[in-house]
Amino acid sequence: MVSISKNNQKQQLLSKIATNDGHGENSPYFDGWKAYANNPFHLTDNPNGVIQMGLAENQLCFDLIQEWVVNNPKASICTVEGAENFQDIAIFQDYHGLPEFRQAVARFMEKVRGDRVTFDPNRIVMSGGATGAHEMLAFCLADPGDAFLVPTPYYPGFDRDLRWRTGVQLFPVVCESCNDFKVTKKALEEAYEKAQQSNIKIKGLLINNPSNPLGTLLDKDTLRDIVTFINSKNIHLVCDEIYAATVFDQPRFISVSEIVEDMIECNKDLIHIVYSLSKDLGFPGFRVGIVYSYNDTVVSIARKMSSFGLVSTQTQHLLASMLSDEIFIDKFIAESSERLGERQGMFTKGLAEVGISTLKSNAGLFFWMDLRRLLKEATFDGELELWRIIINEVKLNVSPGCSFHCSEPGWFRVCFANMDDETMRIALKRISYFVLQPKGLNNIAAIKKQCSRRKLQISLSFRRLDHEFMNSPAHSPMNSPLVRT
Ligand SMILES: Cc1ncc(COP(=O)(O)O)c(C=O)c1O
């Protein structure tokens, strides 16, 4: 921690933006990552460490990617087969991007949306991940002090991406569990009204479909309501569709692009899509972000701004080749969605067996876990207290709902696609064991005492714990404190 005087000194020397808290690094969301970084779980090297379940990464299909890379050495410029392209690629620096890259990305975006819409490669603007895309759009669409409405709960990174360096604000549209956190006309109107009363100028609405953290999709009626709403207020609509290909069950994904093509009374100049290859392909390290705007001026100014966050030409070259391999891409999309569905199903079913419910979802790399009944008190302090136990004692880094601006305490986001099957099994057992404690969940001291009496520490051998758990008479949903309450 930097002391206040040091901080002051620093603030005289450095800019206000650079030294303020806008990055959000001090939130519980990132604290969980730190807990993991200090003691990372490893199946053999550190089996008692913290399991990372706070990272929305898609690692379930890397075998397919690796196979493709091995079979396509010409796609890389650092192989014998591809080296002849090295110079051309290394010196290319046009901020429009390689034409074959834009073409391939546009085609991939169409495929992911079931070929129901078309995308014009000339409207594809590159950015450093969706992170860069959001900031770039905020710079293009709003001035410092202006605000975007955003339905809660929402991805915590939006606070950093849209607000930090731009001075733009986010204004919550409060969604609630009583209707599965649906975005309603009423909630939108109320938020807009409230902002007006506070003299905050609303420049747009930001939605994320499929939703992080909910893993749910917006249905056609809701999307039409949203498009009608932004048209009636003459404000922008930014749709983050970064999880478009993570859908693994019905209903199918409906992109805002479908709605826009359908609705006659829509001003297309207000519609902008943010996309990225970080989730659907599982390449967050490649930093491939896309702004797709229907507004010509926004395309043109965003392209100029993209100079600050271009995608490396080497990456463009490789991806142009990979994404153009339609047979591979079709197989990848189908297989990825199947594996995600299987993993999500296994995990949520396992939790249901010990009485933990989750919001019904059919997309994403995470689900929204309901631990409201485990709170000592129904407050955000109560939520953080439970979260600390889960991090420090159960050793799972799940993310508390408050970091997603959820309006109700007791919800947690659990990521399930960034680990192998064995790690998932252990994570499930840890949480099940924790929930099935006969003394009740809030009594972690009692759990520890009980464990040490049996010469077993929760954080000791999970091999042993697995055994204990499976053979315990408590291993029955009927004995779960959750089922009992
Ligand atoms: C909804 C959403 N938008 C944007 C991002 C940032 O993605 P990228 O890695 O492409 O910057 C994330 C990452 O978790 C996300 O969940």
TrEMBL record:
CDD domains per the UniProt record, alphabetical: AAT_like
Chain ranges of the Aminotransferase class I/classII large domain: 51-431
Matches recorded under SUPFAM superfamilies: PLP-dependent transferases
InterPro entries according to UniProt: Aminotransferase_I/II_large, Ethylene_sulfur-biosynth, NHTrfase_class1_PyrdxlP-BS, PyrdxlP-dep_Trfase, PyrdxlP-dep_Trfase_major, PyrdxlP-dep_Trfase_small
TM annotation in the entry: none
Highest taxon above the source species: Eukaryota
Pfam family name, one: Aminotran_1_2
Similarity annotation: Belongs to the class-I pyridoxal-phosphate-dependent aminotransferase family.
PANTHER family per UniProt: AMINOTRANSFERASE CLASS I_CLASSII DOMAIN-CONTAINING PROTEIN, BIFUNCTIONAL ASPARTATE AMINOTRANSFERASE AND GLUTAMATE/ASPARTATE-PREPHENATE AMINOTRANSFERASE-RELATED
Protein name: 1-aminocyclopropane-1-carboxylate synthase-like
Organism field: Solanum pennellii
Gene: LOC107027121
